[in-house]
Amino acid sequence: MPFPLEVVHRDEHIVVADKPHFLATTPRGSHVAQTALARLRDELGLPSLTAAHRLDRLTAGLVLFTVRPEERGAYQTLFRDRRVRKEYEAVAPYDPALVLPRTVRSRIVKERGVQAAREVEGEPNAVTRVELAEHRDGLGRYRLLPETGQTHQLRVHLNALGVPILGDPLYPEVTGPVPPGDFRRPLQLLARRLEFTDPVTGARHAFASGRTLRAWSCPAGWAGQEP
User: Fold this and answer.
1) Quick one: 119 exposed, middle or buried, by C-beta within 10 A (0-12, 13-18, 19+)?
2) Using one digit for the tens of pLDDT, what is the confidence trace for 92-126?
3) Could you list the residue range(s) of the whole structural domain that residue 31 is in?
4) Element spanning 78, H or E
5) What is the CATH number of the domain that holds 53?
6) Burial of 74 (0-12, 13-18, 19+ CB in 10 A)
């Protein structure tokens, strides 16, 4: 994985990293050594570091890690109880007929062994606020504020609105897994901000990613460039 993993914040309780596209957060499947967790443990000399939550391998942006295993539960509870304000950014087609802002509510299920999640009838378990930040040349830059954290929630919701995220290999249709070493079309989804009150210290935290989405900053040649 030739792309840098930046540390945004580090103290005696937490580490906040700015993850590149294509790097898994934690060991899973064939991704064991090349993960954000493994790299941070090695680079920071913190063998007990653990992840408080997880980003998809294809999504870039902010991830929170805990330094002390005994404190991990307190930080995980923040996410479980929806006490973390998460803001994402995505680049997708612009549809002038799509009325925004709006809050999308649906029920999403992800079956084991099936790559893509899907929406089904029933009580909503996924809620996302979708806003259009700006648009140009047929593309929109969207601000996404998820209230819940279902698998692929943002990707499913934008696809359901008719504006699937650029570079997505699963939505609107499965084109197969991204081969290892193929970095040509990064998913244009970024975990832009994390805000929360620290459950251990009481400090108020607000972190921002320093990354940009190439399809917006360089639309003419975003595919194939470094994420």
Assistant:
1) middle
2) 999 999 999 999 999 999 998 898 999 999 999 99
3) 1-81
4) helix 72-80
5) 3.30.70.580
6) middle
Query: Which listed residue (11, 18, 42, 56) is catalytic?
Result: 56
Distance CA 115, CA 195 (A): 30
Other beta carbons less than 10 A from residue 107's beta carbon: 14
SS3 call for 41:
helix
> Could you tell me if 40 and 147 lie in one domain?
no
Catalytic residue list contains 81: no
Q: Over the Cα atoms of the chain, what is R_g?
A: 17
CA distances from 120 to 48, 106, 124, 172 (A): 39, 8, 9, 16
Tokens of residue 48, six digits: 């007990």
Structure-block tokens of residue 104 = 């999308």
**For 16-39, what is each residue's pLDDT tens digit?**
999 999 999 998 655 556 899 999
In a domain, 226, yes or no: no
